[in-house]
Design a protein that fits this description.
Layout lengths: L4 E11 L12 E13 H4 L12 H5 L6 E2 L12 E2 L7 H11 L3 H24 L7 H8 L19 H6 L14 H19 L2 H10 L1 H11 L4 H6 L5 H17 L19 E6 L4 H8 L3 H7 L14 E6 L3 H6 L12 E5 L6 H8 L3 H8 L12 E7 L11 H4 L4 H19 L9 E3 L6 H8 L3 H7 L1 H4 L9 E3 L2
Antiparallel strand pairs: 1-2, 3-4, 5-6, 7-8, 9-10
Helix pairs in contact: 3-11, 4-7, 5-11, 7-8, 8-9, 8-11, 12-13, 18-20
Length: 487
């Protein structure tokens, strides 16, 4: 039905301190306003040829916001040419369009389907925060609207926040909770960050580039090239290829996303729109027990609350607004067992010798403050053999094999391990090596050479080679053709 109401319940945070503050955390007002957002079907898809959450030409032409016309793409015979972020049709965007309609077609199809669940609410939050709705395509580029997306650099969630930036914009990130995974709270934080970037650079292209590379990198690029034109900066070598491709990738997603049938995406089966109710529970509530009371599965509870990392609500919280399937709030309010859902099934660990919580935390990869709060024991208190320490793992979980704790035990990529080992060698060489002040003999690096190989070939201590060539080796690993002082 045309006038069918689709309900999306969203938790919008009220923030203070929205001005750009490079070195300060943006303070989150602890007051939380819960609103029920009613979205009419026409609002969810005011554009007949767009992914849900987008608005088409008809709405944008009547908008009071600044809008942009896509020039140079008339030959594509698009359904929609207007955007509320600048979109350019050039070789860079054309390359990404070709990718998403050929090799990357299955990726775009999956992203578009997932957009049905999240994009309408994300779009509304962006609009309520005074930002362009088409910035949902930045989230699409970052994560494909996935709450569980995680990059090798440990950026997390639908907006791929790094831990520092997430905390700066009011998101809680600790052992028990990671609000970067919450699509609603993360969108509010992303809105604030993007607003700060735009106010700093006065350009949506540079704001998007800054979201990828960091505002410092883009600021230095502007000073280096003496321009605020992203496309001119992109011609230089200063920005990484990832950042150079990032902005045209977003634009390509926006062009396809607002012209689905033109690019052959006629039959996108959008996921059901985000829809839930909330119940208030105490800190340290066991989600397994809540699931039993509600008659749902633990997996379903996790699906509605992706920001909760473990099997329980964080113990340090007084109370928490837990999301549940529509219709389950009544079941919760009328069930007397809701009073017996506090987490108690912790794993006991018996010490074999003398130790303290620092030793236990190191063994099980658990922060010492978590163990201290859970056991009511000071982190430095000496514990005797056979003392029992509770671990924040459920009794029926094998910690190193259960996905709830995978982040604690994952091994870094080999490339990261190599960089860490290299950095240790360089720091050691700087500290222990002898500095050759006026070198007379040099070694030209050959293909396959390592610092250790060069030390063995030349008979010069590796620490001396590092110390005497520190300006080079501190920046990167050696490459063929590098000239190293050895004597």
């Amino acid at each position: 039905m045309k006038n069918k109401w689709i309900f999306a319940f969203s938790t919008l945070l009220l923030f203070q301190g929205c001005a750009h503050q490079p070195q300060e955390k943006v303070v989150q007002d602890k007051k939380i306003e819960r609103v029920q957002t009613h979205l009419i079907e026409e609002d969810l898809n005011s554009c007949g040829d767009c992914i849900l959450g987008s608005v088409g030409d008809k709405v944008l032409k009547q908008s009071e916001k600044k809008v942009y016309f896509l020039f140079g793409a008339e030959h594509l015979k698009l359904s929609n040419y207007y955007f509320d972020i600048p979109v350019v049709y050039n070789k860079a965007t054309e390359k990404w369009i070709k990718y998403f309609i050929t090799r990357g077609r299955k990726h775009f199809q999956r992203y578009a389907e997932r957009a049905g669940k999240y994009a309408p609410v994300l779009s509304k939050i962006l609009n309520d925060q005074g930002l362009p709705r088409d910035l949902i395509y930045l989230s699409m580029a970052e994560s494909g609207f996935s709450n569980h997306a995680r990059s090798w650099a440990k950026a997390v969630g639908p907006w791929q926040f790094m831990p520092y930036t997430g905390r700066k914009y009011g998101l809680e990130v600790d052992f028990f909770i990671d609000e970067r995974r919450d699509p609603l709270k993360a969108t509010v934080a992303a809105s604030m960050y993007l607003r700060d970037l735009y106010e700093r650079f006065d350009s949506w292209e540079l704001a998007m580039a800054g979201y990828n590379a960091g505002e410092g990198k883009i600021g230095r690029a502007i000073r280096r090239y003496k321009t605020k034109n992203f496309w001119d900066i992109r011609k230089g070598r200063y920005l990484r290829a990832e950042t150079k491709n990032y902005v045209p990738k977003i634009m390509a997603l926006a062009i396809i996303g607002k012209n689905l049938s033109v690019f052959g995406f006629d039959n996108v089966e959008f996921e059901k729109a985000l829809d839930f109710e909330e119940i208030v529970v105490k800190g340290n509530t066991d989600l397994y027990k809540v699931a039993d009371v509600l008659g749902v599965t633990f997996e379903e509870m996790k699906k509605y609350n992706p920001e909760i990392l473990r099997w329980q609500v964080a113990p340090h919280l007084t109370e928490y607004n837990l999301r549940v399937p529509v219709g389950k709030k009544v079941a919760w309010d009328t069930n007397p067992n809701r009073e017996f859902v506090i987490a108690t099934d912790y794993t006991p660990y018996q010490l074999r010798g003398y130790a303290n919580l620092h030793h236990v935390g190191r063994k099980f990869k658990v922060p010492v403050d978590v163990l201290s709060e859970l056991n009511g024991i000071g982190p430095k208190k000496r514990l005797y053999p056979k003392s029992v320490v509770l671990l924040p793992f459920r009794k029926d979980h094998i910690a190193r094999k259960n996905h709830l704790y995978a982040d604690l035990y994952e091994r870094p990529r080999k490339s990261i391990l190599r960089r860490r080992a290299y950095k240790k060698w360089v720091n050691r060489g700087k500290r222990l090596g002898e500095h050759i002040k006026d070198p007379k003999k040099f070694y030209i690096v050959k293909k396959g050479d390592t610092l250790w190989d060069i030390a063995r070939k030349t008979g010069v201590n590796i620490n001396t080679i590092i110390r005497s060539n520190y300006k080079l080796v501190r920046r990167r690993m050696i490459l063929p053709g590098d000239k190293l002082a050895i004597k």
